[in-house]
Amino acid sequence: MDKMTLALAAIVVLGGCGKRDAGNGKGPFDLVLRNGWIVDGSGNPRYRGDVAIRGDRIAAVGFLNGAAARETLDVRGLVVAPGFIDMMGQSEIYALIDSRLFSKITQGVTTEVTGEGGSVAPLTDRLVVDDSDAMKKWHYREDWRDLDGYFAQLGKQGSALNIATFVGATQVRLAVVGKENRQPTALELAHMSAIVDTLMEQGALGVWTALEYAPASYSRTEEIITLAKAARRHGGIYASHMRNEGIRIDDALDEVFRIAREADIPAEISHLKLAGRASWGRMPRVLARIDSARAAGLDITAGLVFRELVTRLAGEGKIILCSSHELSLVENVCSEVVILHRGRVVARGSIEELRHLRNQSSLEAVFSDLVASDNIENVAREMLELVMDA
């Protein structure tokens, strides 16, 4: 196995780090971030430079020596990157409760995609009544019934987070059929399809199912195909938390493939994983089935959760980002570790070296010991240049 480097808890929030200098009065830029490692999202290697901001736009990137700005921020040793996109969040209501969304912004997340199963629309009077307790507790109002209405309210209140949404198939079923375990009538299914048409015209990205949970689990494949066809008419995609992620995952994959084929729509498998001891070791076969479907002409993609990603990349020498609570998961597949805490490198070496150095039996204990250490800043300074040059 090639050596693999593992970075832990590596999210850097520039607003809370670095050193602020006095501004230079009214200049062409509102803010200049100087001396950072720039990762621009293009896929190119990182490079050192400055980033200038004017209003809510990036105005210049490069070596901006002498550029005047109202404020400058020295971010030497830190990474400057575009805001991160959370591809499966659930903050659409929280954005109305507290528009600052600190839990997202302080992790560098500036855009969230939502709508897995449930979504902010469609809403009916009956569904709003069901949410009345939550509205009283958290002090918000569901005054909309479609996406135009929701985004109008979000725009009026303001939000630190950009939000994009799918049409949740569960939400559509609740609006038309309710919570009953039955199939929609022909008229109801036509109504459901028309709802998807309308919400797609209002900016939805596609249809997203969560078929493992009631009442979505009551839906037959034919119902989902109808909704997926409506999304396809507007250039949308189909995403799915599949009906089974355990011993019946082959049946669930067959359903995704059928929907993609009959609706002629790109399909994304959400957080692909295998649940239960009986399914351990089957991921290579699952991935092979997805590869086969793609080779046959279907546009199938999947998002891997961390456990499966580690298993797949462990032998490829790839860098993996994870948080401290996942240390035990990677301990047996990594030969070299880089530990970061609050954006600073605090240790690097082989697992055995780190265990011996800190006199601990596990990586989790090493991490806890380092974070609690009084000399963590000294450790970070000693390790930083070594890692930057690696």
Structure description:
- The protein is of the alpha/beta class and 390 residues long.
- The protein is built from 15 helices and 18 strands.
- The strands form 4 sheets. Strands 2, 3, 4, 5, 6 and 7 form a 6-stranded mixed sheet that branches.
- Strand 13, helix 9 (249-263) and strand 14 (267-272) form a beta-alpha-beta unit.
- Helix 9 packs parallel to helix 10 (283-295).
- The radius of gyration is 24 Å and the shape is globular.
Q: What's the layout of helices and strands?
A:
Blueprint: E1 6-8, E2 19-21, E3 29-38, E4 47-54, E5 57-62, E6 69-74, E7 79-80, E8 84-86, H1 94-97, H2 102-105, E9 109-114, H3 125-130, H4 132-138, H5 147-157, E10 162-165, E11 167-168, H6 169-176, H7 186-201, E12 206-210, H8 221-232, E13 237-241, H9 249-263, E14 267-272, H10 283-295, E15 300-304, H11 306-313, E16 320-322, H12 327-330, E17 336-341, E18 344-350, H13 351-358, H14 363-372, H15 376-388
Parallel strand pairs: 1-16, 1-17, 3-6, 3-7, 8-9, 9-10, 11-12, 12-13, 13-14, 14-15
Antiparallel strand pairs: 2-6, 3-4, 4-5, 17-18
Helix pairs in contact: 6-7, 7-8, 8-9, 9-10, 13-14
